User: What shape does this take?
Amino acid sequence: MLLIFSNILLSELVLEITQGTEDPYKVAVIPFNGDSSISNTINQIVTNNLKRTGEFKVFNNKKLLSQPQKEVEIIFNDFRILDIDYLILGSISNSDKFNTSVEYQVYDIKKGSKIRTSTVFGIPNKDRQLAHYISDGIYEEITGIKGIASTKILYVIENKNFNLVIADADGKNEQVLLESSEPIISPAWSPDSKKVAYVSFETGMAKVFIQDIATGEREVVIENKFQISAPSWSPDGKFLSITMYQDGNAEIYILNLKNKNLTRLTNHYGIDTESTWSPKGSKIMFTSGRSGTPQLYEINLRRFNARPKRLTFEGNYNAKGSYLPDNQGIIFVHRENTKFQIALKYFDENFVRPLTESQMDESPSISPNGNVIVYAIKDNGMGLLSGVTLSGAKFRLPAKQGAVREPVWSGFLR
Amino acid sequence: MFFSKNKFNFIILVIFISSCSTMNVTQEQVSSGKVKTVKATSSAASEGFINYDSRAVFANATIYFEFDKSNLTSKSIQILKSAVNALDENDSISITLSGHADERGTREYNLALGQRRAETVSDYLVLNGINKSRITVKSYGEEKPAILGQDESSYAKNRRVEIN
Assistant: This one.
């Protein structure tokens, strides 16, 4: 059984923040002027989005000394006394029934001045999206880093069947892309976030498919009799690295998506799989069993006949690596004694930094701004998604039903 | 007809070889290794003149592995010897080897590991004279556990190659 979807809602995930950073920005978000139901939705989503970054503390409005509705009403000292760093005001305009627009301002309390005014536009009933755009604007203004509230996460849910799903970064607004009675693994976004690649066992063996998110159109990437898995897109979107079992063993190949030419990248009797591209596309990192245990290696694609260079030496299991978006290091699954953790290794350090500490953490994927890692955990045998920020905050996206696994973060969508 | 839909069923082949060179092969599906009596239908046997050699051979079987390993244990080799005999006796049988891994470790590495286990079994059979064209090798990695559970005894049952 196989069902393809382009836009259907399923049960949603719930957000739960388990731990935040020690010295967050303190902000007050005053409910925006205008339609009160839209205002409440936006206020709640913006608050949750800011909290989830782990870098913000959103002040309880009931404890504020004054609640200004517009700039002339602001008494900066009322906020300075409460040690608040930033104040957010806004107003909603939906007089035109085809459009909603929200104007918002960010005030720096210490300076006593406005530092940002922006307007976001949306269509009615897409208030969540508007709220995500506003969150990203506030986040970028205050931290100087692009926000990820308006990005998406792709993952697999197993309940009765296997579902390939995309959702907003807060776990809401789920859409099922594919439902199958056979396993689906290793989902991957195209660099423009318009397509997904994944491994489906629907034909009786592992095969890589590419599917257009908007239309639901899908195709198998190579028609042959071999198992094919572990797809990863090159940053320019022109190539797909894959693992193919042509000679019985897992070897990595690069597929030219335009002319379907295959170039073999590895040739070793050990397992070579889980390839991934560096941010500029000049290197490919992969997991190899050539040393006797799984370890991460990389090949420089710009050098003639380059030999794989081993990247990890700590412990006897380091696998499924990804490069940080700034190419300063890698994240991967690391085994410490019997625990599988998500770990970070900077290229200029010769040790591993564990980021998580439960028993069975896997499938780390880093947000496009490089700040947050989403990964899969097992809690009482149940598959759930968790997040950890590089600043130390942790959050969870618990499933309502079924085992959730293999989350992958999209690129920036706007 | 030789293949069982239920992977926990074994097919028992009981082969009777009679002295007068007529041979009757009877088969029967039996669950969980319980061997049923199979009646030979040789006309010679009813006359009571023959010595016959009867063997029960597992054509369907499961081979188990250590964590992150794909080498065969001595117990596995015993099972595979029986499989070689069954395949030798029955040229028409083709088999599928499905490799599996326990849930620990990454999914793609486990897919490759399952494949490696299935290839190891295939190599053993080929080395013992079975034509490679009769063998299909594939892997499900950790995606189709035989048993759900987060303990070593469950994991041990999931690190396997199913022959069917």
